[in-house]
Write a structure and sequence with these properties.
single chain, about 160 residues, mainly alpha, about 60% helix, about 0% strand, globular
């Protein structure tokens, strides 16, 4: 007689989900808090250096690039905090050699897919600042409902295509 308490081999359901450890969660929260404070202390303005840029740069120099990039991506795509997400995305656009060009393209694509126009605008600004030709197909394939942002995207496409 077989033991029915264990499913036969092949029918067992293995479920494994990556769960960040508490230390990692604390580091991510600490980075988010530093960025929140920086944006609350001083508004992000076009053409002006911002303290959040330094915070991001320091985080990226910690030697944990992949993890930090994941966190920054999550912050940038958090449409429950659109102003924060857009501000992080704008600061990311000011970082040279951030991630890979495919990482940047995916970030722009995913940000453009969100409903929040502030985040979509920030994604286009980041794309413009990075100047990646790989982002062109992402911008060209995006169907933007806001006419002013559609015009801006068209201008960025023209600039990147040169």
């Amino acid at each position: 007689m077989s033991d029915h308490s264990n499913p036969p081999i092949g029918e067992a359901v293995c479920e494994f989900r990556f769960k960040p450890d508490r230390d990692e969660e604390r580091k991510q929260a600490r980075l988010a808090n530093k960025l929140h404070v920086a944006f609350e202390t001083e508004p992000l303005e076009d053409g002006m250096h911002h303290q959040a840029e330094d915070i991001i740069e320091q985080a990226l120099q910690s030697g944990e690039d992949v993890r930090i990039l994941e966190w920054l991506r999550a912050f940038s795509l958090d449409d429950t905090q659109p102003s924060f997400a857009a501000s992080v995305l704008r600061c990311l656009g000011r970082q040279e050699h951030l991630g890979t060009s495919s990482w940047r393209s995916e970030l722009v694509r995913d940000a453009l897919a969100l409903d929040d126009v502030e985040i979509r605008d920030a994604a286009v600004q980041a794309a413009e600042l990075w100047g990646d030709h790989e982002i062109l197909p992402v911008l060209k394939s995006h169907s933007e409902p806001e006419s002013w942002l559609r015009d801006y995207i068209s201008d960025v496409i023209d600039d990147l295509g040169e």
